[in-house]
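Teaching assistant here, posting this on the class forum so everyone can see the example we discussed in section. The complex has two components, and the goal was to see what a joint structure prediction looks like when all of them are supplied at once.
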Amino acid sequence: MHPNEGKWNMSHLSPERLAALADEEPTAAELAHLGGCADCAAERDAHRGLVDLASAERASIGLPLTHWESLAPALRAERLIARPAVGLAAISGGRHGRHWLQVAAALLFVAGGTVIGRVTAGAAPLPGLPVATPALMAAASDSQGVAFQSVADARAARDRAQLVYQNASAFLAQNDTAVHGIESPSSMRTRLAALDQVSHAMRQALNDAPYDPVINDYYLTTLGQREATLRQLNTALPAGMRVNSF
Amino acid sequence: MSDEHATIRRAIQGDEAAMRALWARHAPRIDMVVRRLAGPDHDTAQDIAQEVWIQIFRALPTYRGDSQFATWAHRIAVNRTLNALRRTRRLAKIEVDMEDDAVAVTPDTDRTFVMASIEQAAAQLSPGARTVFLLHDVEGYTHEEIAAELGITAGGSKSQLFKARAKLRKLLAHLVDAPERREVEHVAPVS
């Protein structure tokens, strides 16, 4: 901290001038002073560090505040949407589409295999979820009988399910005290770090296929899980510390 | 023609799939800008974000392609958010209200918490100073652009920024001080 914080001394630069020098050129007199005053030089460096931290925030991302399901009706009301979505083919074309669909299919296969493996071993399909009961299995079986009339119907159902899943995850993260008793802040931070890596990989994939809907969906789901974990972590952190976003 | 330009062209024609693709691609960043500027009130931020996206699609036919779509949309997001906040009178008073007994933010070195610490500390600034800090140091606006957005002078913007930084520097000492200085302060804090 500045040695004369709160007690302005003419032998040092003022805190606000040092804040300005984070990205402004010093005058000749200021430059000479900074050359001979370690305290003021360290203060200027601290301000530069602050500016660097703030500009790094520019690149940060988060789960969207908006949902397409609520945005689309508003856009339709304004007649901005003329043609409804007709499915993946509408936007997944191009040389990357097939490749990423194959990657997504492989990811689904691996994830599905993991879930099946856990269930057949008598465990919950995912850590933190309840073990499948006969009632749950029956409900799942019933839902498998749903027949979609069109690609648009299936897509809308998938979007609704995704939204419900994200909202349920967020609700459970804040209210499921049974899980809080098992998970430590440390394990949640480990999960956050893993989700950071996944979202980083997804962002790189999006650079190759920016408008691939499958990659975009996975990306948004990953961000949703990060947000849910952050909310969960908030309930486990000491009083006075809160994580709002990242 | 790039994927993005083709998608934008279809979105201008009202193709929902293309519009959704643009939203899915850019919402994580655009909505984050809204979230930062709007502050901790989630409902307000959500309403503003919806408004921002409607405005982006309304204005899409005016997008000339001479800048990145993300940059163009970012400008709309900032402008629309500030307008919305003005309506709610949250920017009625552009001044720095410094409190000497500001509470320091809990230290942590994890990057996630670094960003959260900045948000928490910025929340302790007055709305005007917070907005100037966010626009300049986070969003990369010049003082002239900030002056035009907020209806203040460029000099006023600078003054607000430097006061805001001086306060944030105190609140975020644990993040920006060199380790040896932190150690010295821990042993003999300077009043």
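For the discussion questions: Chain B has two domains: 3-87, 111-176. The mean pLDDT of chain B is 82. Think about how each of these relates to the inputs above.
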